[in-house]
Amino acid sequence: MEPSDVVETIYFVDEGIVSAVALMQDGRSVEAYMVGREGFIGSTAWQIPAKTTVRYVAQMAGKSRRVEARRMREMAARSHSLRVVMATYDAALQRELEQSSACNAIHTLERRFSKWLLRAHDRADGAVLQMTQEFLANMLGSQRTTVNEAAQNLMRRGAITFSRGRVTVLNRQILEASACECYGATRGTADGISRVDG
Ligand SMILES: [Zn+2]
User: Fold this and answer.
1) Rounded to two decimals, what is the model's pTM?
2) Which of 66, 95, 147, 161 is the most buried (most CB within 10 A)?
3) How many angstroms separate the alpha carbon of residue 106 from the centre of ligand 1?
4) Rounded Cα gap, residues 151 and 125, in angstroms
5) pLDDT, tens digit, for every residue of 105-145?
6) Which residues of the chain have pLDDT under 50?
7) CB atoms within 10 A of CB 183
8) Exposed, middle or buried, 74 (CB in 10 Å: 0-12/13-18/19+)?
């Protein structure tokens, strides 16, 4: 899906990782958020007809289940428990976006990169992450050379190996120490939210 497309399908991710990327007029881009099996793609279209505002990029191939947005709205209108599940994820995403707007403004690239790797690793089930420096630079809204410097630092400290477009996480503890507080603050997206029962 591209920005301005009407959302006709909601995708529930079972496997793999999809990045929602915000595009600027000059061609630059930055990842707004990441979706794995904790979430779905389709924004608010499960509630009201909606258009996408971001580009969705599969950063790790996987599987998803799809439901027509119109059908989803009919089901949600009938089921309180379905609305609660969907709204809980929306609220978690909202929380994550609030956190990441502060993160992008305040935290260093190396800290954001570490957070990003941990979040991808959480969703990749331990697999090697296949991604080029150019892709990472696009996701982080940064220069390739800056991403390369951060990667070299993390490699020296034994957190990752990075070669030929493959990132392997060797030591999560080092990566967690290197990541900004935003990783812990929004960990697990949908389960990172406190729900008030009753
Ligand atoms: Zn941060």
Assistant:
1) 0.87
2) 147
3) 7
4) 21
5) 999 999 999 999 999 999 988 778 888 888 899 999 999 99
6) 190-198
7) 22
8) exposed
